[in-house]
Design a protein that fits this description.
about 70 residues, mainly alpha, Arc Repressor Mutant, subunit A, two-stranded antiparallel ribbon
Amino acid sequence: MYVCLCKGITDSQIRDAVCAGASSVRQVRKQLGVMSQCGKCGILTKEIVQETVEQRNLDASESLFYAAC
């Protein structure tokens, strides 16, 4: 689904950025440009980043061979 209509950024792109190493909203914003215009996507972006970081950390702690990303 589209999260940032101004830049055409989807939730999948945000998750992919976290999986590629971004661990904060600031890093995702720098990589994708999300939240750089009207800012209406800010709350949803923060939620997606937080959930994805938490899931990545949980998956990494459960298994050395499996990661969600």
